[in-house]
Amino acid sequence: MHVFYTPEIEGNTYVLNEQESKHCTQVLRMNLGDVLTLVDGKGGFYTAEISNITKKQVAVNVLSKIGEYGKRPFYLHIALAPTKNIERTEWFLEKATEIGIDQVSMIICDRSERKAVKIERLEKVITSAVKQSIKAYHPIIEDSISFLKFIKQYDHIKCKYIAHCLDQPKTTLKESLTPSETCLILIGPEGDFTPNEIQLALDNGFKAISLGESRLRTETAALAACFEANYLNH
């Protein structure tokens, strides 16, 4: 199954952008009449047929559409500090998209070694994973924001957690997560959250959680949280 990301699709015809058209004809060697799959990132899952090919564009006719394809009964938002080696963050985004995630935010903490990210590059990583795993929903990726500003934006969320390594009272997702709810999980930088950041999160309604006995890398902890939240919601 050949999957193409078509966020602007409307109606029964569509022209793939230059990059997707090139992939279609030069990499996959598809021809007139071949059938392909389109996803719009908002739940639309389309079957389409190639109707015209030019040097830079491939036009298709939509044969069928399924709405809310693969819609999940909960919303998962993970906010993590981008890793010093950005490839580790990209690895997380790829795997989390495959497993299932709705929103990812980049938070800049006191101990963050990376203060900024190239959001366009991260978008491409997610889009590639969406197509590879045949997802009709494209996760939202939010640009860098300070830890302080971020936690003050989510007073309305009931299920929100901060994972950290300090020896303090903690719960687990298994003990405290409410299925079919919006869930927000904070994952800190390589040096962990500072005590002040942890206390600030607790003061703003976040619950401290443990992700196990092992000390995990940032991207591993984020993926472990993603997997567990998905598991507990099925």
Percent in helix: 25-40%
The H-level CATH homologous superfamily of the largest domain, spelled out, is SPOUT methyltransferase, trefoil knot domain
Give the overall shape, derived from the CA principal axes. elongated
Question: CA-to-CA gap between the ends?
Answer: 26 Å
Query: How are strands sequenced across the largest beta sheet?
Result: 8-7-6-10-9-11
| Secondary structure tally, helices | 7
Strand content: 25-35%
Number of DSSP E strands:
11
What is the C-level CATH assignment of the largest domain?
Alpha Beta
Can you name the CATH architecture of the largest domain?
3-Layer(aba) Sandwich
Structure class = alpha/beta
In terms of per-residue confidence, which ranges show pLDDT below 50 for 5 or more consecutive residues? none
Provide an overview of this structure.
The protein contains 7 helices and 11 strands. The mean pLDDT is 95. The strands form 2 sheets. The chain has a 6-stranded parallel sheet with strand order 8-7-6-10-9-11, sandwiched between helices. Strands 1-3-4-5-2 form a 5-stranded mixed sheet. The chain is 30% helix and 27% strand. The protein is elongated and about 65 Å long. The chain starts with a strand and ends with a helix. It has 2 domains: 3-66, Beta Barrel (Ribosomal Protein L25, Chain P); 75-232, SPOUT methyltransferase, trefoil knot domain (Alpha/beta knot), CATH 3.40.1280.10. It has helices at 18-27, 86-99, 119-132, 147-151, 173-176, 195-203, 218-232; strands at 3-5, 13-16, 35-39, 45-53, 58-66, 75-80, 103-108, 140-146, 159-163, 182-187, 207-209. α2 (86-99) packs parallel to α3 (119-132) and α2 (86-99) runs parallel beside α7. The relative contact order is 0.16. The protein is an alpha/beta fold and 234 residues long. Keywords: Cytoplasm, Methyltransferase, rRNA processing, S-adenosyl-L-methionine, Transferase. It catalyses: uridine(1498) in 16S rRNA + S-adenosyl-L-methionine = N(3)-methyluridine(1498) in 16S rRNA + S-adenosyl-L-homocysteine + H(+). One of its GO terms (biological process) is methylation. Specifically methylates the N3 position of the uracil ring of uridine 1498 (m3U1498) in 16S rRNA. Acts on the fully assembled 30S ribosomal subunit. It comes from Pedobacter flavus.
